[in-house]
Amino acid sequence: MRVDRFKTHYKTFLTMKFFFNLSMLNRRPTGVGIYSNKLKQELSKKLSPNFIFLYIKDVRLLSLYRIFWNIFILPLKVGKNTVYSFSSHGSPFIANQVITIHDLICLNFPKQHRFQYYYFRFILPSIIRSSKKIVVISEFTKSEVLKFYKVEENKIKVVYNGANILQYSPDSKTEQEFDNLTNKKPYFITVGASYEHKNIFNLLSAIKKFNNLNFSFIIIGKANKYGLQLRDYAKKNHMPNVIFLDYVSDQLLSKLYKEALCNIYISRYEGFGFPPLEAASLGTVSLVSNIPVMREVFSNSMIYVDPLSVDDICEKLQMISKCKFNLGLYKNQYPTLITKYSWNHAAEEIISIVNT
Known about the structure:
- Helix 1 packs across helix 16.
- Strand 8, helix 9 and strand 9 (about 240-245) form a beta-alpha-beta unit.
- It contains 16 helices and twelve strands.
- The protein is an alpha/beta fold.
- It has helices at about 1-15, 30-45, 60-80, 105-110, 115-130, 140-150, 170-180, 200-210, 225-235, 250-260, 275-280, 290-300, 310-320, 325-330, 335-340, 345-355; strands at about 20, 50-55, 80-85, 95-100, 135, 155-160, 185-190, 215-220, 240-245, 260-265, 285-290, 305.
- The protein has two domains: about 20-160 and about 340-355, Glycogen Phosphorylase B (Rossmann fold, 3-Layer(aba) Sandwich), CATH 3.40.50.2000; about 170-340, 3-Layer(aba) Sandwich (Rossmann fold), CATH 3.40.50.2000.
- The protein has a six-stranded parallel beta sheet with strand order 2-1-3-4-5-6, sandwiched between helices.
- It starts with a helix and ends with a helix.
- It comes from Kaistella treverensis.
- Keywords: Transferase.
- GO terms for molecular function: glycosyltransferase activity.
- InterPro entries: Glyco_trans_1 (IPR001296), Glyco_trans_4-like_N (IPR028098).
- This is Glycosyltransferase involved in cell wall bisynthesis.
């Protein structure tokens, strides 16, 4: 039944003029950027010459320019045609649009993203009202949208992200980088540690309590205000086994995931969560928060921890470091998990939604 519905929408899709708003895509994609890039690649396989991808130039004050461009310039470019936005950016002056809301982190952590907080608080409600549909990436995000905004439930459609599948092809440069970084010691890895909701201070507190210099902790995240605070904390507390990295290449990231004892992802809040799927694609288990969205997305395929309990985090680190868990119980679920979250399926769902 779903296949027939897709074929019907697909035939319509081939003949219409359609715009894709890729204003969130940048040269170093993370989160929404990865979503935009992966979904664009899959949609490109299914589209006729009538589709148009819209980008914005990289300028100073990009966040402010992006909002201006979406609200005032985007309507002039698309006219009365349909536009699908890969993010929550759109315009109250476009009726035939579909937007995507990934999470409402800025409303739950307003001090973390003050500029985004004002956007989500005062501008997004009018864009939601003018949109014909709203795509969300999890049932949890749907519940958050219903909690914070006045919107009809049937206007919201859940389309899960695909898995960001990483592969590692050995090369001498990456191998040398890896050896220099890890010094052949077993290590844990944490990816995306750039903001308060990622809960890295609790992780550092647990590492301090863990107090085992035989294991390293590689933490990848921007050296922004929060990132510098983390680095300062580790330095002041004499934690030489904590290694901070900024942006790394996909090749090195894949190698780090592949060889890690465990990927740590103990956020206090997420809309979906790419890193555990990235780790799973390379056969590495993850320690994740026992928050609702993690249970929804990953079911029983991950090790869960209370993100607010330093003691529980420390206990889980000890358990994993001593291999006191059944790794096969988790790894055997990963092929099914990766298949479940397919960009091809996500693209088909988007095509169906915009043609409804």
